[in-house]
């Protein structure tokens, strides 16, 4: 697999941006493989993702920040550089429901998710068998109202020791504190059911059944201080019939949740997501 550089850029929109970026890479002898850009007209905002082959590049990529800064300053760019062979270190948080965890582990095992799943953290022991099967360290940290701060302190220690880049909440049924969330900006992805109306509390699919919903949904998003109101990465829906039982809704909802979460994680790992405000652009 080629090692490619991936540059993500956002700045005020103006003429010449595509040409300037392409020219910079051309002068570095890079071969552009993908160049995707989007203009947000109402905000006069330009967003772009450029991926190029670095095999024959003429510049030392360690010097990229110094060499690119003059162009970035000229256009007022915010930018990030990454590489396709980077493997982020991932921690998965899970409670009792393991369908999302199973899906992530299978996709990781088959190479579909290019990352290193370094640890699995849970407030229940149910997922230990899966961690043992895949040879991933499992950490059981019980969480109660009385020990929540101490539990999060132990979780943060684990994340730091394992040098975690991304945290995936694979149906982790605990609310993270604002202090915890602020330590990992744009580095926590969550999955939750999303209905209209929204059903909060226990047994959302039972509530949906009792209300006779016609559509089920699932939303994967970044976790922010607004918790479930963070930038949306992926959503999926399925229609519901009057013939569907509660068990059917649960099964269909779980299928949506695991697929939406895996897509969101894959896009994050591939550096395909750009954030602006509380929105995302996904160059998929």
List the helices and strands and how they pair.
Layout: E1 4-12, H1 17-27, E2 31-40, E3 45-53, H2 64-75, E4 78-83, E5 88-94, H3 99-109, E6 115-122, H4 128-134, E7 138-140, H5 148-161, E8 166-169, H6 178-182, E9 188-193, H7 204-211, E10 215-222, E11 232-239, H8 246-269, E12 273-276, E13 279-282
Parallel strand pairs: 5-6, 5-8, 6-7, 8-9
Antiparallel strand pairs: 1-3, 1-4, 2-3, 9-10, 10-11, 12-13
Helix pairs in contact: 3-8, 7-8
Quick take:
With 284 residues, the protein is an alpha/beta fold. It has helices at 17-27, 64-75, 99-109, 128-134, 148-161, 178-182, 204-211, 246-269; strands at residues 4-12, 31-40, 45-53, 78-83, 88-94, 115-122, 138-140, 166-169, 188-193, 215-222, 232-239, 273-276, 279-282. The chain starts with a strand and ends with a strand.
General description of the model:
The chain is an alpha/beta fold and 284 residues long. It has 8 helices and 13 strands. It has helices spanning 17-27, 64-75, 99-109, 128-134, 148-161, 178-182, 204-211, 246-269; strands at residues 4-12, 31-40, 45-53, 78-83, 88-94, 115-122, 138-140, 166-169, 188-193, 215-222, 232-239, 273-276, 279-282. It has a 7-stranded mixed beta sheet with strand order 7-6-5-8-9-10-11, sandwiched between helices. A 4-stranded antiparallel beta sheet has the order 2-3-1-4, with helices on one face. A two-stranded antiparallel sheet has the order 12-13. Helix 3 (99-109) packs parallel to helix 8 (246-269) and helix 7 packs across helix 8.
């Amino acid at each position: 697999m080629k090692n490619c550089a991936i540059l993500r850029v956002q700045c005020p929109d103006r003429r010449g941006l595509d040409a300037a970026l392409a020219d910079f890479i051309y002068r570095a002898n890079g071969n552009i493989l993908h160049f995707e850009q989007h203009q947000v007209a109402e905000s006069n905002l330009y967003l772009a993702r450029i991926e190029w082959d670095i095999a024959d590049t003429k510049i030392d990529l360690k010097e990229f920040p110094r060499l690119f800064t003059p162009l970035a300053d000229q256009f007022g760019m915010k930018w990030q550089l990454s590489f396709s062979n980077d493997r982020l270190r991932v921690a998965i948080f899970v409670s009792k429901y393991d369908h999302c965890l199973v899906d992530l582990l299978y996709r990781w095992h088959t190479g579909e998710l290019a990352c290193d799943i370094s640890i699995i953290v849970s407030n229940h022991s149910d997922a230990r068998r899966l961690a043992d099967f895949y040879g991933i360290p499992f950490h059981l940290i019980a969480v109660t109202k009385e020990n929540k701060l101490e539990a999060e302190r132990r979780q943060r220690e684990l994340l730091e020791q394992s040098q975690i880049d991304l945290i995936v909440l694979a149906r982790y049924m605990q609310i993270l504190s604002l202090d915890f969330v602020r330590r990992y900006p744009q580095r926590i992805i969550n999955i939750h059911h999303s209905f209209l109306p929204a059903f909060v509390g226990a047994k959302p699919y039972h509530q949906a059944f009792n209300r006779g919903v016609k559509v089920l949904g699932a939303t994967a998003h970044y976790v922010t201080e607004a918790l479930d109101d963070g930038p949306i990465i992926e959503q999926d829906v399925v229609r519901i019939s009057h013939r569907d039982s509660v068990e059917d809704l649960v099964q269909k909802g779980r299928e949506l949740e695991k697929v939406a979460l895996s897509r969101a994680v894959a896009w994050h790992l591939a550096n395909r997501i750009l954030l602006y405000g509380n929105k995302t652009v996904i160059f998929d």
